[in-house]
Amino acid sequence: MRGAVDTKTGTDLRIHRVAGEDWASHRALRLDMLEADPEAFWADPAEVRARTERQWREEIAGPRRHLQARRGDAVLGGIALLPEGYVPQHVIPADRALIVSLWVRPEARGTGVSHALFRALAQLALDLGRPDLRLDVDESNLAAQRLYERLGFEATGARDPREGHDTAWVEYAIRAEHLLEGQHLLES
């Protein structure tokens, strides 16, 4: 997958589909995101730190489809698409996929990394026949909500109280083709 050229550095931003052999870079990114923003994700940082190489490879194998934004050898951020539930009881409609685990390293924020990740994820969702995209964000994460709204996401009104928190997850939705149609917004 290809991204955009960074006009400041002249280097290509590439979107890479994570495979089993990428387990170490995937692990490093996940650990960094949970250390920097532990409240923004569903994962338990202690459980994630304790995983073995085999467990990392299993996570990459599915059901999530992980993407990384890379510039040279540096992994700047990641995002994942969940087209099916983690377990049989977690049913996702046939035309829907969930967006999970978006995170961009602080030094790369504001450089178009998240936009490139969303473009690649939207195309992946369309390729899988799952154009109805949803994500959950903590109601206190206003910066993320502003980003999603700039991209065209709309709050659905669905809320899910967070266990052990005084906040709730708020659901946002967009059609994958709208993310691609709005590329002029993504490139600004």
From TrEMBL:
UniProt keyword annotations, A-Z: Acyltransferase, Transferase
This protein's record includes keyword Transferase: yes
Residues annotated as domain N-acetyltransferase: 13-177
Pfam families: Acetyltransf_1 (PF00583)
Stored InterPro entries: Acyl_CoA_acyltransferase (IPR016181), Bact_Acetyltransf (IPR050832), GNAT_dom (IPR000182)
GO molecular function: acyltransferase activity, transferring groups other than amino-acyl groups
UniProt-recorded name of the protein: Acetyltransferase
Organism: Brachybacterium faecium (strain ATCC 43885 / DSM 4810 / JCM 11609 / LMG 19847 / NBRC 14762 / NCIMB 9860 / 6-10)
